[in-house]
Amino acid sequence: MKVLVLASNGQTGSLVAQELVALGHQVTGLGRGDNRNSFLTSYLQQDLLDLTAEQVKDFDAVVSAFGVLNPELFPMYKQVATHLTSILANSDTKLYVVGGAGSLVVDPASGARLFDTPDFPADYQGLARAHAEQLLVVRQSATNWVYVHPAADFDENGAKTGNVVIGGADFAVNKAGESYISYADYAHELASLVSANKFSRVQLSFRQGDAK
After folding, report:
1. How many CA atoms lie within 13 A of 26 on its CB side?
2. Residue-range definition of the domain harbouring residue 197
3. Tens digits of residue pLDDT in 130-147
4. What does the alpha-carbon distance between residue 81 and residue 67 come to, in Å, rounded to a whole number?
5. What pTM was computed for the model?
């Protein structure tokens, strides 16, 4: 497969790209700065919002690992999603989006999400709502999409364990009451998901399973 990984210089994007290369795929990265990953097949140094339909038409999949933590830039989540779903609309190229845990549903009856709960950290409300806007754009698009939520505790320094449960749009925990996933496990599972190419127009979630 030919896969384009957006924000490939970032920690999540870099790990996903590396896992895809390990699976034998041709992986092109994209970022605004110089390429930091020598393992990539090729690299596009440009702004993500300048990406065109012509540039993406020959890829089997596009993985968006775009993410910002500066509250002033949170509107970019919706902006980037709008741009990507526009240039990929009605095409055969599948869009995979690295999402957020805040949009996971805690009460299917009411539709309440994790960030709607009183215990959700106030410091993460802005980011969670930005992810929710991103998700809404993706869900309403004419794109062949897969949106992948991490667990609530998304650990950049955690080990790669291979102990991962794939769920849907509902929030879930293991027997210890934990909603946890390491970046390493998330990247491995996402790369495997892209490689298998089984899902379409669906929300999925990754969390660590019960202790073995």
Report:
1. 6
2. 2-208
3. 999 999 999 999 999 999
4. 11
5. 0.97
